[in-house]
Design goal:
This protein is mainly alpha-helical. The chain has one domain. It has nine helices and two strands; from the N terminus they run αββαααααααα. It has a two-stranded antiparallel sheet with strand order 1-2. Helix 2 packs across helix 6, helix 6 packs across helix 7 and helix 7 packs antiparallel against helix 8. It is globular, with a radius of gyration of 15 Å. It starts with 6 loop residues before the first helix and ends with a helix.
Length: 180
């Protein structure tokens, strides 16, 4: 069974890289240009919108570090990158990043917090805190209420299940989950 915790903690943040991805289940081809500062990446788009609304830019460096040092190079990590791509395209195409900006932005901050622990924390530090869990779950709950195709609905259900299973995980526990 594919595992999907990293939903909005890492899936939502990690890959803003070049990709040409075919979503066969939906018979939908998604082709995006290389990342040029954000236009293709949900996390970058949220950051850009935050700046447009008067906030300061938020560094996504820890998320990119997690992508390169935790996700890339292992099959599960590569799957999370693909899942991020699919969910990012959904959020961008449906306008959810703007219409539900606060939910997405709070999940972005929660995800960055998880990434910071993965990058900088000790093995016993809590990676998925109760506050992070709540913000991530709120976004997942929003998507559960939307009319999504079965492929996206199944992905959201798996994300929710894994998030619930890993609430309170330490850095070491979460790294083990992500790399197995």
């Amino acid at each position: 069974m594919r595992k999907f915790l990293v939903s909005w903690a890492i899936v939502f943040l990690s890959s803003c890289a070049d990709f040409n991805h075919q979503l066969e289940e939906e018979e939908l081809t998604i082709s995006m240009a290389p990342d040029t500062g954000g236009d293709d990446c949900a996390a970058s788009e949220l950051n850009d919108e935050h700046v447009r609304l008067g906030g300061s830019s938020i560094s996504l460096d820890d998320a990119h570090w997690v992508e390169i040092n935790v996700l890339v190079g292992n099959p599960q990590g590569e799957q999370y990158i693909d899942d991020y791509t699919d969910l990012s395209v959904l959020a961008l195409n449906e306008g959810y990043l703007i219409s539900e900006f606060t939910l997405h932005f709070n999940a972005l901050i929660a995800g960055l917090s998880v990434c910071s622990v993965l990058k900088n924390g000790s093995d016993t530090d809590t990676a998925v805190s109760n506050a992070n869990f709540s913000d991530l779950l709120a976004l997942i709950t929003f998507y559960e209420g939307e009319s999504l195709t079965p492929v996206y609905s199944d992905l959201i259900a798996k994300l929710k299940s894994d998030l619930i299973s890993h609430n309170g995980d330490t850095k070491a526990e979460l790294e083990t989950f992500l790399t197995n």
